[in-house]
């Protein structure tokens, strides 16, 4: 339960059995969200890709491309580092799996 939440906001407490334990779920009063006046005639199409991470086109006539090559290279470096650590720590990999840290700044 949240410590900074007043107990007067609690609407319901559900006690549910799961995995041989009991969990308490607290249901709070919702704060009304603001409504936005959207123009339903404007649309944006998003096409995910590999080298171009996102290609976006709108019906207004604007389009833009978000480059994903840097993100792809970071992912490839991480996968290469993990495979290297797996080879050297084949026996202890499961114990050391949480210790993997990749420094991209070097």
What is the overall number of helices? 2
Radius of gyration: 24 Å
In terms of quaternary structure, the protein is: single chain
SSE run: EEEEEHH
Backbone structural class: alpha+beta
Gap between N and C termini: 42 Å
Strand content: 25-35%
The low-confidence parts are none
Number of strands: 5
Going across the major beta sheet, what is the strand order?
Answer: 3-4-5
The major β-sheet equals:
3 strands, antiparallel
Average pLDDT reading: 81
Shape: flat
Helix content: 10-25%
Architecture blueprint of SSEs:
Layout: E1 10-18, E2 21-28, E3 44-48, E4 52-58, E5 63-67, H1 69-88, H2 93-96
Antiparallel strand pairs: 1-2, 3-4, 4-5
How would you describe what is shown here?
The protein has 106 residues and is α+β, with helices and mostly antiparallel strands. It is 23% helix and 32% strand. It has 2 helices and 5 strands. A hairpin with a 2-residue loop joins strand 1 and strand 2. The longest helix is centred in the last third of the chain and has 20 residues. The model has no long low-confidence stretch (mean pLDDT 81).
């Amino acid at each position: 339960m949240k410590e900074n939440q007043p107990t007067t906001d609690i609407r319901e407490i559900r006690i549910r059995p799961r995995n041989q334990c009991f969990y308490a779920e607290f249901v709070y009063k919702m704060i009304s969200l603001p409504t936005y006046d959207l123009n339903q005639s404007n649309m944006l199409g998003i096409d995910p890709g590999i080298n171009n991470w996102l290609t976006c086109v709108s019906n207004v006539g604007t389009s833009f491309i978000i480059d994903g090559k840097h993100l792809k290279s970071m992912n490839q470096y991480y996968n290469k580092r993990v495979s290297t650590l797996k080879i050297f720590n084949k026996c202890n990999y499961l114990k050391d799996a949480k210790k993997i840290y990749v420094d991209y700044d070097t």
